[in-house]
Design a protein that fits this description.
Strand order of the largest sheet: 1-2-3-4-7-8-6-5
CATH topology: Sortase, Chain: A
Structural class: mainly beta
Helix content: under 10%
Number of helices: 3
CATH class: Mainly Beta
Number of domains: 1
Largest sheet: 8 strands, mixed, barrel
Distance between the termini: 38 Å
Radius of gyration: 16 Å
Oligomer: single chain
CATH architecture: Beta Barrel
């Protein structure tokens, strides 16, 4: 389930304890609920772009860079792959895994993990989305096509647009999902976008990998401002 008004969400766990629990469910992001029924997968026969070795880039930033005050994210735009999505605000499920958008009602919407930093704050901000759904490609279908240098714009509730630049795009096998590296605190304004990736396992109805985009804040703008 989602929390449409995040101010009603329970207080987040202590950072150390929460990261430890995340490590215990590494790879759970979008993997447990990213299954697509076999009949639909066979009919669609569409394959999401996978990150190339040339796009691996870096997972961090050498410079601290700019940062923004805390403000809840409203929407995300990724011009290079034609993505525009309002952002849901999701937390964790009873088993400690991260909640994901509903495959039946919200496959075309990305979600900000509400216990991560807000986009532009110092720290790691996490946005997730499905790669496909029962009907076909979903919001992050082309996430693996991003390359270092591409931009990601996140509009915030205070009217500011946080502008991030991709530093790397990588694919991780489910059993090797680096939860600590992705969710742990950073000393710069970081953004991680996550979706399913790799091979679809028709026996388990799950993808075997995750695609993760790493980005850092480079600038910001307000409506009407000159960049």
């Amino acid at each position: 389930m989602s929390w449409p008004n995040s101010e009603f969400a329970p207080a987040p766990a202590r950072p150390g304890a929460f990261r430890a629990r995340l490590a215990g469910v590494a790879g759970a992001v979008l993997l447990a609920s990213g299954a697509i029924i076999i009949a639909v997968a066979l009919l669609i026969q569409q394959h999401a772009p996978q990150p190339s070795a040339a796009a691996a880039g870096t997972t961090g930033s050498a410079a601290k860079g700019p940062s923004l005050h805390r403000s809840l994210p409203v929407s995300v735009d990724i011009p290079a792959i034609g993505v525009h999505s309002q952002l849901l605000h999701l937390g964790v499920s009873a088993d400690g895994s991260i909640q994901v958008p509903s495959l039946t009602t919200s496959a075309d919407e990305a979600a900000w993990f509400k216990y991560s930093a807000t986009p532009g704050e110092i720290g790691a901000s996490v946005i997730e989305g499905h790669v496909d759904s029962y009907q076909g490609p979903a919001v992050f279908f082309r996430l693996g096509a991003l390359r270092p240098g591409d931009t990601i714009d996140v509009t915030l509730a205070d009217g500011v647009t946080a502008i991030f630049r991709v530093t790397g795009v990588r694919e991780y096998a489910k059993e090797e999902f680096p939860a600590k590296a992705i969710y742990s605190a950073t000393d710069y304004a970081a953004l991680r976008l996550i979706t399913c990736g790799g091979t679809f396992d028709y026996a388990t109805h799950h993808y075997l990998s995750s695609t993760v985009v790493f980005a850092s804040l480079t600038s910001s703008s307000r409506p009407g401002s000159i960049q």
